[in-house]
């Protein structure tokens, strides 16, 4: 790709869904996407998905933007965080990807966030994972410490939406998840996130391997025990991550969501309230702060 000629910077066009969501009421969302099904899936298995939420070409554009942003991040000190050998995470500015508003205004994303996190949900993070050729099996883990809302209150107060930019195949290091483990108490967990190997058999018995296609969206509790697997192909497997919190969650402290004023003003007014963000005159480099101890070591 000719990155110099590729204008990632500021495409304000909402190409797919935004116009359809401006007047959608909570009642309409309930009718379009069943709240009981959403909550049953996330409180049960800990992950659900929507096939074909976008056209594959939409995901292709996302992949082009991520390729440029990944190159920039690798060239900048602390621009990318290692998540194991040949595996990186990069937090980004929303306006650097085309289709951002398509995603955050998509009726399913709005319906899921509202059903699980309340009508006052907050978008706190956007970034991407890139497992490259040679990335190894991650240790089973959750992405952060389980809050008291979950451990004591048995309530989910955050979600992570994921979108692949490629059609995932078996040899590309697919994501694996152990359904129902979002409720596991972190007894014996290192850093309260990494379960002991004595529990690996439990996760292997439950594990589900995900092979999403371009245009699919999934959403999960990041507390559900999961891992990336070894990428034995010659292809990378980039995946976008959108983090969303309930009003009582604290994940925004680990992130730095920024908008320029000019871009912020293009966001439909009814959606602006859903961002935990800073408004800046010019975008500032993001110093990656959300590291996950332990993932720097992969498993053979």
TrEMBL record:
Presence of keyword Ubl conjugation: no
Keywords: Dioxygenase, Oxidoreductase
Pfam family, one: PhyH
GO molecular function: dioxygenase activity
Entry-linked InterPro entries: Fungal_Metabolite_Diox (IPR051961), Phytyl_CoA_dOase-like (IPR008775)
Annotated protein name in UniProt: Phytanoyl-CoA dioxygenase family protein
Species: Nostoc favosum CHAB5714
């Amino acid at each position: 790709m000719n990155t110099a000629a590729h204008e990632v910077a500021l495409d304000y066009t909402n190409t797919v869904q935004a116009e359809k969501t401006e007047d959608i009421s909570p009642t309409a969302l309930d009718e379009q996407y069943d709240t009981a099904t959403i909550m049953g899936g996330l409180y049960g298995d800990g992950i659900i998905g929507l096939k074909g939420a976008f056209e594959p070409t939409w995901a292709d554009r996302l992949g082009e933007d991520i390729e440029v942003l990944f190159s920039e991040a690798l060239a900048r000190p602390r621009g990318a965080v290692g998540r194991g050998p040949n595996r990186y995470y990069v937090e980004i500015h929303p306006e650097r990807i085309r289709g951002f508003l398509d995603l955050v205004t998509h009726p399913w994303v709005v319906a899921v966030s509202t059903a699980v996190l309340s009508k006052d949900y907050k978008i706190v993070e956007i970034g991407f994972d890139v497992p490259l050729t040679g990335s190894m099996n991650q240790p089973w883990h959750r992405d952060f410490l389980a809050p008291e809302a979950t451990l004591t209150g048995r309530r989910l107060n955050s979600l992570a939406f994921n979108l692949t930019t490629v059609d995932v195949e078996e040899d590309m290091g697919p994501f694996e998840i152990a359904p129902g483990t979002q409720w596991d108490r972190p007894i014996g967990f290192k850093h309260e996130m990494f379960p002991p190997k004595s529990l690996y058999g439990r996760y292997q018995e439950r594990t589900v391997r995900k092979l999403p296609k371009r245009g699919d969206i999934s959403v999960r509790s990041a507390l559900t025990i999961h891992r990336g697997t070894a990428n034995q192909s010659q292809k990378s497997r980039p995946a976008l991550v959108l983090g969303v919190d309930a009003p009582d969650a604290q994940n925004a402290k680990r992130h730095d969501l920024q908008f320029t004023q000019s871009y912020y003003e293009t966001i439909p007014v009814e959606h602006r309230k859903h961002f935990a963000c800073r408004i800046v005159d010019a975008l500032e480099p993001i110093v990656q702060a959300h590291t996950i101890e332990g993932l720097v070591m992969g498993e053979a």
